[in-house]
Structure formats: structure tokens, C-alpha cells
Amino acid sequence: MKKTLTILGSTGSIGRQTLEVAEHLGIKVVALSANSSIDLLEEQIHKFKPELVAVFDEKAAQELKARIGSTKLRIVHGIEGQQKAARESGADIIVTAISGQAGLEPTLAALETGKRIALANKEPLVCAGEKVMQIAEQYKAEIIPVDSEHSAIFQCLTDGMYCLPFPENHRKIKKIILTASGGPFRGMTREQLNKITPEQALKHPNWNMGKKITIDSATLMNKGLELIEAMHLFNIDPDQIEVVIHPESIIHSMVEFADGSTIAQLSNPDMRQPIQYALTYPDRLPSLTAQLDLIKLKTLTFEKPDLEAFPCLRLAYEAAKKGTLACATLNNVNEEAVELFLDKKISFTEIPKMIEKALCNL
After folding, report:
1. Can you list the domains of the chain with their CATH numbers?
2. What number of CA atoms fall less than 13 Å from residue 219's CA on the CB side?
3. Helix or strand or coil: residue 22?
4. What is the spatial distance between Cα 145 and Cα 98, in angstroms, rounded to a whole number?
5. Helix residue ranges per DSSP H, 194-271
6. Is a pLDDT exceeding 60 seen at residue 169?
7. For residue 352, is the peptide bond before it cis, meaning its omega torsion is within 30 degrees of 0?
8. Residue 115 pLDDT greater than 50, yes or no
9. 209: pLDDT confidence band, cut at 50, 70 and 90?
10. HSE-up of residue 42 (Cα within 13 Å, Cβ side)
11. CA triplet 3, 76, 118: central angle to 5 degrees?
12. Distance CA 132, CA 111 (A)
């Protein structure tokens, strides 16, 4: 098992859970990074004692230095600081969990180390998938996905192979089946969705996540971004990716093979399971995730997504087929629209309208 760890984005939901897993496994944390949440970051520093910390916001970095005082801890700032945390920590594993497009440059820097990358932010692959995978191959970096769906696909596909593009899969895979919970508004009409508030959208039925990804889950854009990510990670056409609504969030994704066999990965909805697998692959060790009780579950249900009520998923399919510029536009405008919705400047249903308008203007 790998022994040292860097976490880019340690104060976010994935970063915090990664620290739980690292503590559980006894993995040494050597570097952390955050945007500006220095209160939590200071707590993490005292508990995990990293050697290097990056804070994107320069003023926050200076305040953190003053708080920590004279220690051996190295504190850096800005995008360069995030890249230094990736390149100069010397960690065996780098977890890339910086939210949004801001994670692209630090992810590229992490890949250039040639180490194992536990990829927890999908936006680098959405915005620059070909470049990301090319650099991974160039520097012989291992990409192990942390998203529960991509971790599931990886587990269904992997037998002694690392998660780099392997073209031979085109002869084996008929399709990838991405499961989606459907979010909190499954079954609602567009008219009903028009009245949704940010407070309602932030209440996900199954997962505890950050604000941006929770809103994306409610619009089904998160699943759209995931299909673009899967397209690059597994070197597969978007037409070979099917999204299925699975409200229980027990089957995290499936792969249907050319011989008619379908393999699925099941576990309780707990991000600590895919995080741990990314850190310990190819080993499987006891985890913090509760054991699955199929008898207690009784039923698992599936349905088609409603692309009329939730057009973000349709727009993601269209962008995936058009290429890099369309995918980057989709992601960037979605980030802007989500912020406007959270600030109550646009309605829930205006999010896909903004994205569609931008794509039409390409």
C-alpha cells in the first residue's frame, strides 16, 4: 500500500473524507491545499502535521502563517502554490479534489509527477480530457477515479490494468451504464421545477456533498459531466454510455460486455469507499463504509431520465459529441449559472437555458 499522501482541496467534502480514510489506514499526509478556508485548514494542520500547505488566497495564506507561527511548515499561495503542493510534496498519491475548473492546472501538475493520481474533480477531464490523458500517458501517471460511478466502472473493468486509455476495451465493452439517483426533484415537471429554491436544491436524498455538485446533481448536469469524464477515462464513445436513474444509489455503475454479460459494483452510498479504493488499489482493506445488507434493501429500481424536465443531461450528450470546445463551454457556463442560482439571481430552470444558449452560439 502507498504510504504518503497529498490532498489538493482538503477542506472540501472529498478532502475531509479523504483525511478520515487516511487516518483510518495510517497513511501519512505530507501536503494539503485549500482556497481560503483557513480555520478548518489550521485544524487539519495541527492534527495531520503536513510539511507543505498551499492556500490559493494570498491574504488567507499570510493570515495562516501568522497563526501557525515559527514552524517548519512551508506555506505557499496562489495557483503556483497549488502546483507546488502537487509537484514538490514527494507524496506517493496525490488526491485532486479542487472543485471546478480551478482544479485543471493543479491536476496537470500532479500528473507530471508520474505518481498515482486519485482523481476526484471531473472538470479537468470535461474541459481538457484529451490533454489530461495524454499527459498521464507521457509521465506514466496512474489515474484512479474517485467519483463513485467512475470508481465502479474502473472496478468492473480492471483486472491488473491501470486506468489509462486502453483501446482494446472497444472490442470488449458494449456500453457503460452510469447510474444516477435522480436528485431531490425526480418526477417533477418543468413547471414545478421553475419554483425550486436553492435551499430545496441543496437537500440531496442520498449524498452529502458540496454546494456546486449538489446543485449539479439536482439538474442532472453532474451526470452529464460524468459521462464526458467517462468518455475520456475509458476511451469510449458517448453513444456507448447510457444513464439510468437508480434512486437507491446502491449500484454505482455497470458495464455491459460484448458477450451479453453485465458487471455491477454495489455498496452503500458513502464516498469513503471509492476514496479508500483509490488509495489502496489493487488491495482491498476493511473500510469505514457500512456493510451492504441486500435483504434489508429488498428492492433496487431503475428508470429512464426525463430529458425534457432535466435538459442538462441532453446538453452534455450533445457537447460530448461536438468536442472539447463545447464541453469546456458547457462546464464554464454551468459553473456561472449555478452561482447565479445560489445567489437567487436566476431560477432553477434558467440554468439549462443559459447553457443551451451558449452552446448554440459556438
Report:
1. 4-121 (3.40.50.720), 169-268+294-360 (no CATH)
2. 32
3. helix
4. 14
5. 198-201, 211-219, 221-233
6. no
7. no
8. yes
9. confident
10. 14
11. 35
12. 8
CB 74 within 8 A of CB 101: no
Residue 78 backbone zone (phi > 0: left; psi -120 to 50: alpha; other: beta): left
Helix orientation angle between 221-233 and 123-138, rounded to the nearest 10 degrees? 10
291 burial via Cβ count (<10 Å: 0-12, 13-18, 19+): exposed
Give the DSSP letter of residue 194: T
Cell representation of residue 298: 429488498
Q: Which cell numbers hold the place of 193?
A: 421545477
The residue among 195, 126, 180, 124 whose CA lies nearest residue 341 is 195
CA–CA distance, 90 with 2 (Å, rounded to integer): 12
Total residues found in the chain within this entry: 362
Q: Is 8 helix (H, G, I), strand (E, B) or coil?
A: strand
Contact 218, 186 (CB under 8 A): no
Query: What is the C-alpha to C-alpha distance for residues 222 and 147, in angstroms, rounded to an integer?
Result: 11
Q: Which three cell numbers stand for residue 362?
A: 459556438
Rounded distance, CA 264 to CA 338, Å? 32
If pLDDT is split at 50, 70 and 90, which confidence band does 204 have?
confident
Average pLDDT over residues 138-163: 84
C-alpha span between 327 and 343 (Å, rounded): 24
